[in-house]
TrEMBL record:
Domain DUF6017: residue ranges: 169-285
Coiled coil: 72-99
Pfam families with a match to the protein in the record: DUF6017, RepA_N
Descriptive protein name: DUF6017 domain-containing protein
This protein's UniProt keywords: Coiled coil
Length: 293
């Protein structure tokens, strides 16, 4: 079978499982099987569902529900191997933890934070690095200047970058969440000319919900970050369509597009209904009149 070449940005339509670099390069995981590394990547991908569904225990720890059958289906293996791989991740490498819920209920599966754990334990050997040099060479992720793609490309090209900061993992989880919640691939098809704007919105959402600030400036007012985050997490594709329409209809000069977009995103859940209601009245020729009959 012949496969065609990629053209332009066509590779963007693919989805990927992200295998942490440390699983490949760190001496600590040299004896881990390739299938176990793949399964860990699959379970990491499932963690985005825990954010979407609010799956957290009373301590705020996120978990997923992934049965043996789902493991078998996800990596196409037999039951015996699925059980063996889960045991390998849990018992040998402590990268997951399973907790029973009771008779007839599936186990809760906690996927452990690999990089945060390695950093906290000061693991001594990554290639030729000592714990002292590693601590000094952890990559710094700037909060401004440059896109997230540029940041990731820079860390990928670094020989010293064998631990990604926890912030990057969090950003990627939220990026996946918003791509699904906003149905970004469908919006791209409906608004091909606005693809750049769509991804600017995506990155702005990720940057905002992962901000370390306690208060964020919205519409000239300081609002608690958790309030802003809660509002943004309610957005769906209809809100983004509304925002694209607002951008097209706006005839005034926007001095700070980032602040404008953030304010529009924040207000979208409470303004979208009135916007479309006004459009319906206008299209039907009602104007501001009330039909007394």
């Amino acid at each position: 079978m012949e496969y065609p070449y990629f053209k332009g940005l066509e590779a963007d339509r693919y989805s990927f499982y992200r295998v942490p670099k440390a699983l490949v390069k760190a001496d600590l995981f040299q004896k881990m099987s390739g299938d176990a590394k793949l399964l860990y990547a699959v379970l990491l991908d499932r963690m985005s569902l825990s954010i979407k569904n609010g799956w957290q225990d009373k301590h705020g720890n996120a978990y997923i529900i992934c049965t043996i059958e789902e493991v078998m289906d996800s990596i196409h293996c037999a039951r015996q191997k699925a059980v063996k791989l889960l045991d390998e991740l849990e018992q040998e490498f402590r990268l997951i933890e399973r907790r029973r819920q009771g008779l007839g209920k599936p186990n809760l599966l906690y996927v452990k934070d690999l990089y945060a754990g390695l950093s906290q334990s000061n693991y001594l050997k990554y290639g030729n690095h000592t714990s002292k040099s590693l601590k000094n060479e952890l990559p710094v992720v700037p909060k401004s200047n440059g896109s997230n793609t540029e940041k990731i490309n820079k860390t990928d090209s670094s020989e010293t970058d064998l631990i990604y900061p926890a912030e990057l993992q969090e950003e990627e989880q939220y990026r996946r969440y918003f791509k699904e919640a906003l149905e970004l691939e469908i919006l791209e098809q409906g608004y091909p000319a606005d693809k750049t704007v769509l991804y600017e919105i995506l990155e702005l959402l990720v940057e905002t919900v992962t901000s370390r600030k306690k208060f964020l400036r919205i519409c000239g007012e300081e609002k608690p970050k958790e309030v802003v985050k809660s509002r943004l997490m309610k957005l769906d594709s209809s809100h983004i369509q509304y925002i694209l329409e607002c951008l097209k209809e706006n005839s005034t000069q926007i001095r700070n597009i980032k602040q404008y977009l953030l304010a529009t995103l924040y207000n979208a859940p409470v303004t979208v209904d009135s916007y479309y209601s006004a459009q319906v009245r206008h299209d039907m020729g009602w104007g501001g009149r009330v039909d007394k009959n």
